[in-house]
Amino acid sequence: MLIAYGVVSGRPRSTPVSQAMVFVALGLLVGNRVLDLVEADTANQFVRHLAEATLTLVLFCDTVRVNRGRLRHESALPTRLLGIGLPLTIVAGTLAGLALFPQLNLWTAAALATMLAPTDAALGLTTSPQRGDVRAPARCNGAFGRP
Questions:
Q1: CA-to-CA distance for 36 and 147, rounded, in angstroms?
Q2: Are 59 and 34 in contact (CB under 8 A)?
């Protein structure tokens, strides 16, 4: 699946579909929900360590691409995303959780909303090339951000 995605990975870049969305959909497809090709025990320590290592790698790749000079110069966007957008998302998620799952209490719905609120650093990245750029930024260009 990874090789097949690599072959067609240029097409999804021009759509709002992210790499994570594709792999979650593929996981649901081949997992025990649809085709039952792969059996994954979520209580298995290997699965847990693999998920933690994957998250670490994704967050590391996002961090490597941060241009600190540009971040200092253009700090308004991250400030709005984290200072206004994130709290509003958590409040909206809490209200949606209470509406969708009436058995939840306020604190459980708030915890669920906090866990599901997007905190990905890539949300603030441009998704189309800027004037003069050759291409849009890649997710993680090789090991340690090198092409």
A1: 37
A2: no
pLDDT tens digits in sequence order for the chain, 147 residues long: 778 777 777 776 677 777 777 888 888 888 777 888 877 666 678 877 888 888 788 778 777 877 888 878 888 877 888 889 889 999 999 999 999 999 999 999 999 898 888 765 555 555 444 544 444 445 454 444 444
Q: Which two tokens stand for residue 48?
A: 């847990």
Three-state DSSP state, 125:
coil
Is the pTM of the predicted complex or chain greater than 0.85?
A: no
Single-letter amino acid, residue 79: T
Angle formed by the axes of helices 106-116 and 86-100, to 10°?
130
- From residue 31, give the alpha-carbon distance in Å to each of 26, 45, 47, 118: 8, 18, 13, 24
Burial 55-90 (b: 16+ CB within 10 A, else e): eeebeebbeebeeeeeeeeeeeeeeebeeebbeebb
8-state DSSP, 84: I
Per the CB < 8 A criterion, the answer to whether 106 and 94 are in contact is yes
